[in-house]
């Protein structure tokens, strides 16, 4: 393979799915296999991150509003936990029960840095797929629902500051929904930074539940606005 890795530009050795293949239930894969988004990848940015892929899928699939595709996974996940409790410990910390209405569920903490890096991989993969080149700016990752539940004033102000900055670039812009072959697993929409079409803002949605914004980092946005 002569193509360059979508992430680092090294020679590619395999094909990476965007989002990772483990997001798609096995029995469904053959039906939409032809249309899944794939990009060339080196080992480091595909095979060596398979644990991160599982981690990300577990977090996205355990979101309260996740659909039936994610629940199919829950069974697999439970059987894995029975065999190896360290997987659960590594993914979800400080699990505690809560009631929402009449429903019993649980909340947990997770490693945000690891989560965000996994989302950056996906954003870079989508970017490569669309522009046929590596993305060379840094990303800022925001879990959209979490903005409303951020407890610390500092992080809330940071989030609001970031959105203020982002809105300036989106004034006359809008998000276009991009068709994917398995929308029950993954959907996304894209807006471009005004006048700078090579900067993308993605809204990612997994299992019709969790929504994540991946956009140029605040520093990048400020540099663009300086001209
Ligand atoms: Zn690479």
Verbal overview:
The chain is of the alpha+beta class. It has two domains: 14-109, no CATH class; 135-226, no CATH class. Helices cover 39% and strands 26% of the residues. It has helices at residues 26-32, 50-61, 68-83, 85-91, 112-131, 153-170, 218-226, and strands at residues 14-18, 37-41, 93-100, 103-109, 139-143, 176-178, 186-193, 196-206, 211-216. Strand 3 and strand 4 (103-109) form a beta hairpin. It is globular, with a radius of gyration of 18 Å. Zinc ion binds next to loops.
Give the gist of this structure:
The chain has 227 residues and is of the alpha+beta class.
Helix and strand run:
EHEHHHEEHEHEEEEH
Task: Calculate the terminal CA-CA distance, rounded to whole Å.
Answer: 39 Å
Which percent range describes the beta-strand content? 25-35%
Mean pLDDT: 82
Radius of gyration: 18 Å
Q: Tally the structural domains.
A: 2
Bound molecules: zinc ion
Number of DSSP strand runs: 9
Which class of secondary structure composition applies to the elements? alpha+beta
Strand arrangement in the largest pleated sheet: 5-9-8-7-6
> What profile does the largest beta sheet have?
5 strands, antiparallel
Helix segment tally:
7
Oligomer: single chain
Contiguous low-pLDDT stretches (5 residues minimum) are: none
The helix content is 25-40%
Principal-axes geometry comes out as globular
